[in-house]
Amino acid sequence: MERNTAERYLWALAYTLVKEQLYTLVSAHNDGTGLDEADAGGSSVLLLARERGRAVQVIRLAAAPDDARRTEQDMDAFRFVADRLRREWGRSRLEGLLLYIAPDGADACLARAVETENAKEPVPDLEIACAVADGNRGTWIGPRDVLRRMGLAPEGGAAMFRSVPQPPDAYREAIRTIETEREREIRQAFGYGRPFFVYLFAVLNVVLFACMEWFGSSTDAETLIRFGAKENGRILQGEGWRLLTAMFLHVGPVHLLVNTVALLYVGGVVERIFGHWRFLTVYTAAGVSGSAASFLFTPALSAGASGAIFGLMGALLYFGSRRPRLFLRTIGRGVLFYLFLNLLLGMVLPSVDHYGHLGGLVGGILVAGAVGLPGEIRRPARLVFAVGWGLLVAGALWLGGW
After folding, report:
1. 302 classed as catalytic
2. Is 191 within the bounds of a domain?
3. Which residue among 250, 255, 354, 357 is the active-site one?
4. Which of 319, 349, 370, 397 is the most exposed place for a label (fewest CB within 10 A)?
5. Does residue 29 carry a catalytic annotation?
6. Tell me: the pLDDT tens digits for 252-301?
């Protein structure tokens, strides 16, 4: 009877973790390696996982064992399966939790076994903990910091055991529906347009670089000015087109390589989300706003796609503000880390035009809001974003004396 009740509760908890904590149900089986959905005693063993930065978090849900001595064996098996999952998901760290469901309460032997397992010396980058959901106490028995990190609040145990769970099949179907909807949402969000302008601009960068090397040198100031680099004196004389052309020129092969790789990496994602023409608008307008900020804050000769690329990251931040759960579940942490790293490098490296980067980033957010996501109406808000971008560029040029 207790195992049947535990079966219901572990499926109810799995449903909550999938729905609210964005876990994925990796498998439902008997030992972490097979495909059958019940162990010899008739209870499922569920394996759930989610990504968190460079770590993968894995939870194994199972009914409390009749023999507490089995805990060590379960931990060893779970450690092996979870580490294999970590490698499959390409993460460097593992945070795991073996959670037993005990609707009628955990006996003293099981509590001691759990405490013994948690007292063992942890393996670097492979942190595995053990806990019990105790139905009598209505709480979790285990390390609270680990439980919180894995998405299990201390009061969650009481709330879970106060409710009457549905049959397991109802939760299986609900989880299947959630994960199907998530897959559809990802395909829809990241499949609006196949990259086209990304490759076109990458080729254009290379062609112009080759032309500069042919007619002079990409590191020569006169050659850069002749091909359209941002040069404040020429802009003040009326050559405002340099605000646009500067983003297609690069100073030396390393500069070209870094920006082209970044364009392919970030731009491919943005063009898939926003589509061709929105991507074109964001990229060019962000490049112009980056050049305008550079014009205002520094008289130095400058060139490069960095401002436009920061604008693409700004567009991804706008996407994150509109679809936060999808953003964090897919590309969010990588985008935020990449953005932070590049902003930091821009601040500490003297040769980097960080004013152009910041201008491009802000401009990218504003232009992304102006063009909107596919299917997004919000006309008044889009108009505000468009006016904001116009004021940003016009203000920078006016303050710069143009």
Report:
1. no
2. no
3. 357
4. 349
5. no
6. 999 999 999 999 999 999 999 999 999 999 999 999 999 999 999 999 99
